[in-house]
Amino acid sequence: MEREYSIFNTDCRTGIKDIPDNSIDFIITDPPYFIDGMGGDWNDSKLKSKAKKSGIVGGLPVGMKFDRTQGEQLQKFLEPLCQEFYRILKPGGFCVVFSQGRLYHRTAMALDLTGFEIRDLLGWKYEGQAKAFSQAHFIKKDKNMTDAEKAELIKELDGLKTPQLKPQMEPMVLAQKPKDGTFVENWKKYQVGLVNTKESLDGMFPGTIMEVSKKIRQNETDEKIDHMTVKPVCLISHLIKLFTKQGQSVLDPFLGSGSHGVAALESKRKFIGFEIEPRYFDIAKKRLEKSANKTDLFSTTQ
Ligand SMILES: C[S@@+](CC[C@H](N)C(=O)[O-])C[C@H]1O[C@@H](n2cnc3c(N)ncnc32)[C@H](O)[C@@H]1O
Prior knowledge:
Blueprint (H helix, E strand, L loop, with lengths): L4 E4 L3 H4 L8 E6 L14 H11 L14 H20 E10 L5 H11 L2 E9 L10 H6 L5 H10 L12 E8 L6 H8 L18 E3 L2 H6 L13 H11 L5 E4 L6 H8 L3 E5 L3 H18 L7
Parallel strand pairs: 1-8, 2-3, 2-7, 4-6, 7-8
Antiparallel strand pairs: 3-5, 4-5
Helix pairs in contact: 3-4, 9-10, 10-11
The chain binds S-adenosylmethionine.
The site of S-adenosylmethionine has 21 residues, from helix 1 and helix 10.
C-alpha cells in the first residue's frame, strides 16, 4: 500500500532532493522567520535562553535594532528551496508560504524569481501582542541632558512609541507553478490549479483574510504543544481543502510540531514533512500517529 504519510527528521534542503519532479500537489509551509535567531541555523536551546532573557521571542530583539540583513538572509535561504518547490510541484500546483509583515516581500521575491506566479497575499487574522515601546528609558539614561530637559522630552514624547503597531495579521504568499495550457487542460492532466470555492471557514465565499476564533483554536488539542510557533490546524485544513482534493499530496518542509501534517491527515490528504530539530520531530511524530489512528484511514510510516 502506498504510504499515506512520511516524515523525516532531517534538513529539508537535503531531504527534498529525493522527491521526484512534478509529483506534489500542494506545498504549505511556515519556514524560519529570520528574526530573533529563528534563522537558517534554528537552534532550540539558544532560542529558549533568548526568550528567557528578553521575555519576547517572535518580536524584535531588546533595543529593537532594525537589521535589514535579516530579509537578505531569508531570501538567500529560501531561493534554492523555492527552486526545489518549483521542480517537485505539478504544473499549476499551489504553494502557500507563511511570512511576517516585515519580510513578506523577501518571501514573495524568492518565489517570484524562481518562476512562480504570485497569485495573492493571504492573511491569517489573529490578536498579537503589542510590542512597541516608549523612549523614556533611553532618555533617562542620556548623559547629555539635564533632568529638566529629560522631563520635558519625556512629556513631549508621551504616547509616541517605536514603529510596531499591534500585529493582527500574518501574511502568506499564494504562489502557483505555471500551468500547462489552459486551466481546464491543466486540470485534466494534473487535477490541480483551480480553487475549491465551496470550501469556507465562515459560510461565505472564501476570502483572502482568514480568521479562526480563539475558542476553536483552544479546543483543537487537549495537550500543551511545546513549540513556539504552532499554527491552528483548522486554518491549515481550510487552506489544504481550498487547493487540493481528497487523496492528493501535501508537503511541509518545516514541520515544527506537525500541525500541517495533522491538518492533511484529518482532511484525508497524503503528507510528507521534514523537521530538523529532534525534539520537535518527536512532537510531530506523536501528533501524526494520533491523527492517523483517530481517522483510522492511514498506515503509520517511519
Ligand atoms: C515556524 S516553525 C513551523 C511551525 C509549524 N507550522 C507548527 O505549526 O508547529 C519552523 C520549523 O522549521 C524547523 N527548521 C528550521 N530549519 C529547518 C531545515 N533546514 N529543515 C527542516 N526543518 C527546519 C524549525 O526547527 C521549526 O520547528
